[in-house]
């Protein structure tokens, strides 16, 4: 189906759309464009392309108005100040959130239907279930003249074109490219060590990024950490019913009525911030529970528990407003609800080899496959922070520092779920793909969205903290590239 990863999103970054400003803000700007630019440039530490960031800030507003007015994109009143100190951030969410995610998704789908209907009305042809895998390239003239593709039934296509736009969603769905590109990142040890779990579009395998580099295209921060907004386990239980939470609770992120199930206990154990989390070296990597920080451990990490923490959950429930605020299989696990079945659940998982259980930390480390001395020191240091009431390593909130007092000990393997890659091809302000020298234009070739978003970021840090920035770039770069591609084809 059409829409790509964009059709899975729920909000878009845009700067001061005039039409929405008239509708929601008495015609006044929502945000200080220059202050936002300064903040963005500070975040990327001078590594991104400033002109591309400015291009997004200056054209995203008009792009959103165009999609709203001409194609029926429905957006609710924008949110400002999404986090403390971020008063310049504005996020436009799809459709009225009070109607719930189901209605929001329907509005989203209708928007893409509108776009495709207009496209076909103008004579465009949509080839679904067709994979582009190569570029037709005139080396002497240094220009692309078409695309090679293959249909789901094996039919081969040679598509001649005067302009080609790469909008294939990046390389997040390719295990090979994740290891290849992310292992080149000098700032983080484990990014390329293993394959990443995907919660995005697994068909975004980077074939056309490879096709472009094969003809000499350059990349820009191709080793930027992937967008990781979710985490969880690969453990799925089927033993318990799905319950409605009858106190009127609403899911923290999506606005829908909150349902929960004890089948999501493993996921809750992976995400609850009152246990220590360690990476493949047996070391902590962040203040547990920090927003979207799982990527720092690489593709996976371990959540570690002692018997006293398990007993407390059994008696009092998970100690958070909504403990599983990320990926869950059956709605999530409600907070503050006793789980008397905890021991049965863990014993069953340990017996089947799905979690590690041991009487000592040394034995647990051996089962986990991490360095024993490092791991034991990590837990000893963590317990010291708990006793002192202060995490001098990462600054974790004191109320979340619960000491691990003794065995048996448990470790649950958890996975950082990648939504998409965040590095791509090098492009200029006309969305033209550049050669490896960073200057020479490859004729007739353009790249947008996650195929080129590395120009906005630094590979020293993850995706920027502005909600919906990737979608804002996809819409804005796509619109601009479309215009330039048409002009190029008409010459």
List the keywords.
6-stranded mixed sheet, single chain, alpha+beta, 491 residues, 3-stranded antiparallel sheet
Instruction: Calculate the mean pLDDT score and round it.
Output: 88
Question: How many beta-strand elements?
Answer: 19
Through-space gap between termini: 32 Å
List segments where confidence is low: pLDDT < 50 over at least 5 consecutive residues.
82-87, 95-103, 250-256, 322-326
Largest sheet: 6 strands, mixed
Summarize the structure in words.
By secondary structure, this protein is of the alpha+beta class. It is built from twelve helices and 19 strands. It has helices at 18-24, 33-44, 50-71, 100-121, 175-182, 207-214, 265-271, 307-316, 342-351, 361-368, 372-388, 469-490, and strands at residues 11-13, 79-80, 90-93, 130-138, 143-151, 156-160, 164-166, 197-198, 219-220, 227-232, 242-244, 259-261, 277-278, 300-306, 356-358, 409-420, 424-425, 432-434, 441-447.
Sum this structure up briefly.
This protein has twelve helices and 19 strands. The chain is of the alpha+beta class and 491 residues long. A hairpin with a 4-residue loop joins strand 4 and strand 5 (143-151).
């Amino acid at each position: 189906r059409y829409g790509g990863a964009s059709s899975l999103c729920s909000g878009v970054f845009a700067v001061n759309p005039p039409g929405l400003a008239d509708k929601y803000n008495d015609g006044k700007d929502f945000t200080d464009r220059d202050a936002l630019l300064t903040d963005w440039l500070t975040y990327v530490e001078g590594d991104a392309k400033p002109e591309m960031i400015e291009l997004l800030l200056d054209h995203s507003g008009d792009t959103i108005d165009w999609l709203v007015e001409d194609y029926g994109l429905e957006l609710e009143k924008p949110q400002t100040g999404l986090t403390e100190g971020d008063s310049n951030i504005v996020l436009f969410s799809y459709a009225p959130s009070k109607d719930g995610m189901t209605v929001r998704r329907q509005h989203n789908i209708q928007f893409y239907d509108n776009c495709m209907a207009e496209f076909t009305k103008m004579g465009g042809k949509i080839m679904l279930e067709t994979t582009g895998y190569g570029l037709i390239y005139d080396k002497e003239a240094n220009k692309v003249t078409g695309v090679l593709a293959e249909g789901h039934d094996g039919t081969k296509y040679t598509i001649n074109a005067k302009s080609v736009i790469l909008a294939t969603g990046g390389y997040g769905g390719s295990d090979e490219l994740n290891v290849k590109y992310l292992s080149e990142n000098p700032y983080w040890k484990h990014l390329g060590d293993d394959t990443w779990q995907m919660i995005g579009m697994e068909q975004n395998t980077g074939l056309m990024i490879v096709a472009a580099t094969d003809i000499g295209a350059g990349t820009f921060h191709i080793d930027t950490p992937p967008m990781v907004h979710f985490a969880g386990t690969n453990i799925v239980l089927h033993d318990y019913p799905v319950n409605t939470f009858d106190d009127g609770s609403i899911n923290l992120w999506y606005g829908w009525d909150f349902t929960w199930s004890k089948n999501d206990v493993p996921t809750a154990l992976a995400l609850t911030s009152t246990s220590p989390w360690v990476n493949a070296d047996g070391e902590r990597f962040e203040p547990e529970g920090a927003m979207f920080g799982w990527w720092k451990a690489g593709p996976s990490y371990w959540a570690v528990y002692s018997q006293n923490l398990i007993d407390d959950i059994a008696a009092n429930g998970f100690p958070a407003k909504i403990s599983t605020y990320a990926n869950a299989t059956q709605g999530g696990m409600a907070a503050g609800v006793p789980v008397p079945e905890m021991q049965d659940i863990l014993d069953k998982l340990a017996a089947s080899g799905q979690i590690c259980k041991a009487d000592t930390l040394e034995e647990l480390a051996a089962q986990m496959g991490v360095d024993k001395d490092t791991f034991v020191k990590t837990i000893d240091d963590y317990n010291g922070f708990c006793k002192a009431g202060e995490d001098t390593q990462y600054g974790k909130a004191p109320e979340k520092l619960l000491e691990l007092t003794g065995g048996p000990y448990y470790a649950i393997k958890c996975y950082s779920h990648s939504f998409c890659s965040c590095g791509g091809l090098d492009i200029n302000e006309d969305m033209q793909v550049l050669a490896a020298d960073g200057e020479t234009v490859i004729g007739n070739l353009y790249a947008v969205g996650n195929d080129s978003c590395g120009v906005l970021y630094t590979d020293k840090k993850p995706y920027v903290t502005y909600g919906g920035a990737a979608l804002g770039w996809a819409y804005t770069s796509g619109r601009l590239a479309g215009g330039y591609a048409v002009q190029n084809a008409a010459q």
